[in-house]
Amino acid sequence: MNRKSLLLVLSLFVVGALLVSCAPAATPAPTAMPAPTTAPVATAVPPTAAPTASAMDALVTAAKAEGQLTVIALPHDWCNYGGAIDGFKAKYGLTVNELNPDGSSGQELQAIVANESNKGPQAPDVVDVGLGFGPQAMQQNLLAPYKVSTWNDIPDSAKDSGGYWYGDYYGVMAFEVNSDVVTDPPQDWSDLLKPEYKNDVALSGDPRQAAQAVQGVFAAGLSSDNGDVAGAAQAGLNFFAQLNKAGNFVPIIAKTGQVAKGETPISITWDYLSLADADTLAGNPKITTIVPKTGVVAGIYVQGISAYAPHPNAAKLWEEYLYSDEGQLQWLKGYCHPIRFNAMAQAGTIPSDLLAKLPPAANYANAVFPTLDQQTAYKTAITTGWDTVVGANVQAAPTP
Amino acid sequence: MRKINLWAWLWIILGGLYFFGPLYGALDFSMREKRGILSFVAYENVLKDPNFRDSFTYSTLIALATITVGLILIVSTAYWVHLRLPQARPIVDFITLLPFVVPAIVLVDGFIQIYSGPPFALTDTPQGTNVLLMFGYIVTAMPYMYRSVDAGLRAVDVRTLTEAGQSLGAGWITILFRVILPNIRTALLSGAFLTFAIVIGEYTFASLLARPAFGPYMVLLGQDRAYEPAALSIMSFALTWAAMMLIQFLGRGAPGQGQVAGAH
Amino acid sequence: MADPTQADSPGQPLVRSFLPTDLLVWLGVLPFFLFAILFILWPSSSLVVGSFQDIQGHFTFKNIVDLFTPSILNSYLLSIQISLVTAVAGTLFGFMLAYAAVLGGLPRWVRTAVMTLCGVAANFAGVPLAFAFVATLGRTGIFTASLRDAFHFDIYQHGFNLYSFGGLALTYLYFQFPLMVLIIAPSLDGLRREWREASENLGASTWQYWRHIALPILLPSLLGTMILLFGNAFGAYATAYALTGGFLNLITIEVGNQISGNVLYNPNLGLALALGMIVVMSVSIGLYTWLQRRTARWLR
Question: Is the ipTM of this complex over 0.90?
Answer without folding.
Answer: no
